[in-house]
Every structure is written in C-alpha cells, then in structure tokens.
User: What shape does this take?
Amino acid sequence: MAIKFDEVSRTFYLDGKDITYAFFINEYDYAEHLYYGKTIGHDDLRYTRGTFGGSAVVKLSRPDVKTAVKSYNHFGSELTFHGTGDYREPMVEVVNPAGDRLTQLLYDSHEILSGKPAIKGMPSMRGGETLVLHLKDKVSCLACDLYYTVYEDTGVIARRAVYKNESKDVIMLNRAYSFAMTLPHMEYDVVSLYGCWAKERKIDRIPMHHGVVSIDSKRTSSSATLNPFMALAEKNATEEQGNVYGISLIYSSSFVLKAEGTPDGRTLVTGGINDFDFKWKLESGEEFETPEVIIAYSTEGMGGMSRSFHDAFRNYLINPRFVRKHRPVVINNWEATYFSFDSEMLKNIAKAVEGTGIDTFVLDDGWFGKRNNDSAGLGDWVVNTDKLHGGLKEIIDYVNSLGMKFGLWFEPEMVNEDSDLYRERPDYAIGVPNRPHCYSRNQFVLDLTRKEVRDYIVESVNKVLQENHIEYVKWDFNRNVTESYSLGREPERQAEFAHRYALGLYDLCERIVEANPDVFFEGCSAGGARFDPGILYYFSQIWTSDDTDAEERTHIQYGTSMVYPLSAMSCHVSVVPNHQTCRMTPMATRADIAHLGATGYELDTSHFSDEDRAVVRKQVEEYHEIEDLILNGDLYRTENPMESNYFGFMVVSKDKKEAVLTAYRRMGGVNNEMKLLKVAGLDAEKVYHVSGLDMTLKGSTLMNVGVAPMFAGGDFMTVKYWFKEVGAR
Ligand code: DGJ
Assistant: This one.
C-alpha cells in the first residue's frame, strides 16, 4: 500500500517512486502540510512544526480554545482559505448566501481508493492509488474533497479538489484552485516557460521573494505566453543536481500558478483555474471539479524533474494506444503550397517521397469551403472541388496507392465571417450583442460553451472522418478568445465562460477524438500556443512551433522538454531560406533537430531530384533506428543553447543498453575552442561501442570525459553518436 494513515498522529504518508508526501490533521482539524521530498520513514513529523508566532496573531475561532496563539496563517497548508485568520493566498474564495466570504474547511473523514476516479468532463492521469480527504465548513455547508494520487513507478503526486455545495442556497465561487502546498523555505528560483508565436516555451528563472510570484493565462487557452507549468528550484539546483519541485496543470484554458514567500520564510504554492474573470454559481447540491495538477519532486535537478513528468505523461496521461508506438513520418503541404494548390500539385508532392519511408501525407489548411486565403471558409467542412477536382476520395485513394496514409487538417473551433455557417448562424460565434467583434486572422471563435454549437461541429467533422479513409488529423486553433460571452447563458453566469469553454473543448474531444479511436490526432495552435497536458491527453503529439528553423528549434524544443516528452513534440524538416527566419541551415542539421521528436517533412518535394530522395530516405532510415529511444527513452539535456554555442540532447533507453546523443554547434569559425561534449545517463559499469567515434569505451569514461565532436566547418552543424552496450569491463 502506497498510502498509509497513522491514527495516533493522524498523519497521512503517501509514497511514490523515491518520494514521500506527508501531512496531518492537526488539533484544529486543519489539514497541515508536513513534508514532500525524497522517500523517508513513517516517523512522527510533527516536531517540524516550529514555533513561529507571526506579528498579526488571530486566535482560531474554536469556542473551547481561548488561549491559542496560532492562526491558520501559521500552519503549513494543504488548503488555504479566506476570512478566518489566514492572510496567505487562499485556494478557495466564496460568497456565502448571507453575503459573507468566510470559509473554514476542516477535516471530516477520508477514504483510500485502490485506483483513481476520473474527473467528470476533464482530462486527468490514470492509474495509481488515491487518498480522498473530505473537508467541510460546518457553517456554510461548503464541502471540499482533496484528491491525492501516487504512483509506484513515477516520482509525482497528482492533486485536485472538488467543491460541493451541501447548503440549501447558492454559493458563489470566486476562486476555486486545485491545490495548495507549503514548501519548507524560500531559497528557490521560480522557473517558468514563456513565449509568443514562433518563440514558444523559452525558459525564465527568477529568485523567489516575499510576496507572490504569479504566472497565468487570461486567454481562454493555456497559450504561448506562459505554459501552465512552474518549477521551484533550490538556488543551487542545476540541470542534473539539486532539489526541484515541478508543477504542471492538466488544463487548456485560463490558468494561474502562484508561489508566495510567506512571513515565516516558507513558500506556499497554489493555483488552478484562473480566478481573473471567473465566478461560478454553485447551486445547492452541485459540485465543482477542478483540473488536476501534477507535482514532481526531483533530487536530480531540472533534468530529473523533466524525466518524472515524461514518465508520468507517457505512462498515465497520453493515449496508451499511440504513446509508445511508431509515429507517422509525415509530409505536410502547408509550407509547400499554403492555400494555393490543386489535386495535381498535392499528388506530385506525395509521389515525390514514395519509397523514402515517409508514410503519411497530411493535407493542411485550404481543402474546404471557399478557403483560398485565410478570410473565408472556416466552419464549412465540405470539400472544395475547385481545388480537389475528384473530391477527398480521389486524393486519398492516390495517396493510399503509394502505400501512404492520409491525414487532414481541421480548425473545428473557428468560423470565418465569409462562410455558410456564419451566414446561417452568426450567433454561433462568441460575441457580445451590440458590440463589434475583434478580428484575429479574419476569424471568430465558436461558442463551445453551447451544446448546439458543439453538436454542429461534431456532426460536420465526424461526417468527413466517417465518409473518408482518414488516418491522421491535425487539429488547429489559430486565435484567442475575445468578447468572452455566451448567448446561451444568463448574465450572472457570464464569468463562467473561460472554464465552460474548456469543458466544451473536452466534450468535443470526447465526441470526435475518442469517437474515432483508430485516427491519430495531432494538436496545433498557431504553432505551439496550446501545448499543455490537457491537449496531450487527447492528442498524442502537438505541433511544437511554426518556427521550423533549426537554430530556433534548439531553443523551443529544449524549453518544451522541461515538461513534455520528446514523443509529444511534432517537429518538421522544412526548406531554406527558412520561411520564418530566412536563415540558411544545412539539410542534415534540420533533419537531426527535427528527428528529436515525432518527425516529418514540410517542403515542396515535387521538385526533388533522385539525390534529394536518397538523402531523405537515408534520414528516415536513421530516424527509424532511434525512434524507439526518442519515444520511450530518458532525456538528458547535455548542452543548453540559451547559455552557450551548443545544444545537446542525449536519450538513453530505460535499460541503459543504448543511447543516442545529438549535438549542435551554432557558430563555426577558426581556431575553435577545444570542446568536449557532455555524455550523461549511461551505466558507468557498462561498456559501449560508440558509432561516430567507432570506439569501445566504458560508461564511466564517457560520462566523466565526454566526447570530442568532429563538427564539419561552418555554422549550424550537428553531430550524432550512437552508444550500444557491448558488455562489461
Ligand atoms: C497554423 C499552423 O501552426 C500551421 O502549421 C498551419 O497548419 C496553419 N495554421 C494553417 O492555417
């Protein structure tokens, strides 16, 4: 049993792989946090509570306790609440029927479950063993269940909260976060992933301070601005050493994560659905589910944290049907043609890669309605026969006759003003009556909070999928929501919009993605703007960025790998000069970087010479040799392109019998520095043959000495080494 309850000290001990999480129910029936870190014994940890008194002492409101000098403010916390002496960031904020905003959620009972109940209407991890802690406010009759799940094979804990209105009246939720947890000190750096279009998931690291560090999205999408991730890394924590807590929220709409340096010198972390522009009317008898948060603990620095997230997501989040299997190697026509194509052009692109190992042709934007540019057609999921003369069937049959699968692009959540759908149902687009719409890419977002709108989308997309032999779907989302408002809801419920949009999106995913179990789905959002664990639950890979320049991709893929496994990142080889940066990089480099994920090609192959074809065939062959490692191995980030002239990813099989190191040097030059590339993750005692060096060396030698790279002259060059165990010495 991974979860134990000590009845004497009223302590819960939750043990996962190499971790223990502990809290107890204190003398005020408050769930008081004790510990989260490396595995420890089940000792009585209450001696760690300390004596901090604080300056603003508020006595606990318990009639029999007249002399208490502590308030909730002084307890390590599993759930912070407002109005009864705790001045830290509350996890929950309510308006009770009388108009007061007090909450006092105290222990009532608990259950230990052998599995993990799914969240109603939202994605979450599977498996594990679960503790459900039932807390109640006896006056307002708000109840809260805190869920904790631990895994024997993964060093993470999954947490969430369910709020229940057990009163006879309405309770307004002004804030309903998923978790709260106290960390033992403040000597952390806060790490987050920020960015924008074509520059997704860059790494920020700032010192923790007194007060609140907050990262969030207000876009009704997890967004490229800040990913729903935060790490608290001890000051001395590096890529491979030191203590790090990582927090990743399984959610695709507006979120917030906060770290608060409290007067007692500790750090309170909390967050979930963003309470900015949020209010939820909870009727008598109703429950409110919050998204799940995954909290990783690592003693092996940022790298160890990432490996825990990667294992957790591959084992328990991403679709088990696809997560570990061979991924389609695609040829996508977007950068080759944009909107200007016909069946012949597409056939030529597909025909040119026949026999190269590329096995899936993906037809991107522009195949439907009057979609000749980005101002028309979205919402009309009917084939454009001016462009595809023989309809979808003809091009699909042709692609299949080449021995390739066929994939298709959709943007199900959107509508253009110039579309049949908008002409018939303008009310389906999100908007506020008597106010003009904000335009973005000439399109509007459909109101997914309304069932009839979702029904239209499900019917029209599923019709295309069911009437055609489509084996792959790229699901795009190219603009953010503005004018958050639904015609389907009364005024006092309009601030429920952002969360209801997420629920609508997940409902669509259930009814389209889950209803077509043999189709492989890729997520996309103007590049990688909605790259989050909620999307990853339904879409086994996500387009990482529209920026396919190899140099930029080293940064983007490095940052994305903080949380997401390489198998989640869709990465394509594109043409030079690069369409986003105009940079020239060698074809081999573009392939080596794109092959560090779920790979593909996105360029006009119709002009390919036999030599070009041979190059691609060889690249795809090499990719297949490392594909299993890329999908299932442990990632070690050996060189950081944000900090040096180099990038290095080493991926090691779980049994440490084989590994591959791909490294990249940005700038060439003359009289270059002597550089030894770092090697990591091997078994020190095993002996490896290293192709690329063509030598046999011990793991300890390789990891302590490194390898001297033979980069070809010039800028933007890569090298690749394969390590294969040949025995022990
Ligand atoms: C944005 C995506 O990131 C691109 O790959 C492409 O699919 C376009 N949208 C199509 O409009």
About this structure: The first strand starts at residue 3 and ends at 6. The chain has a mean pLDDT of 96. Residues 334, 364-365, 409, 476, 478, 524, 526-527, 543, 546 surround DGJ (CB under 6 Å). The CA atoms of residues 16 and 152 lie 5 Å apart.
